[in-house]
Amino acid sequence: MLKPGLRPQTQLFAPMECREDALRYIKGLSWIYFGVAALNLWRAIEFAGTGWFDAIFCVTAGFLLRRYHSRVLAGFLCLMTLANLLYLLNLSLHITGPSGVMVIISGLMFCLTLRVLEATIKLHGRFAKEAASAVDAPKD
Q1: 5 alpha carbon, distance to own chain's centre
Q2: 55 near 37, Cβ under 8 Å?
Q3: I want to staple 22 with a disulfide (CB 3.0 to 4.6 A). Which of 56, 75, 120, 123 is the partner?
Q4: CA pair distance 140, 123, nearest whole angstrom
Q5: Residue 71 in contact with residue 120, Cβ under 8 Å?
Q6: The pTM is what?
Q7: pLDDT tens profile 49-86
């Protein structure tokens, strides 16, 4: 049971109410990108070469998102994950397409990047104004 005045941990679809929530979403997705990079690296080693580009892309995207909290990068990641999802859905229509697990992971990554796009927009929009007003406020 939570004590009065304490907020529970931010969940995936809980509303973002402050700057810390947005930063928590961004950091969380960057860790997920590092995990997906590890899976792609394992796939590249196990299946002789496929997945190296995906692993490098995921590590780079996770690092840049964690470092810069960029709206442009988040939008680019949304477009890339949407393209990856559509590509995998197109391949899954063929008999020798990818497994359903890859399509599900790609769909989840697309949903998560949409959420992080929202977090970066709020972080540089409404929450930036709140942070600036908190810094400019006189101290008692």
Answers
A1: 29
A2: yes
A3: 123
A4: 27
A5: yes
A6: 0.80
A7: 667 888 898 999 999 999 999 999 999 999 999 998 99
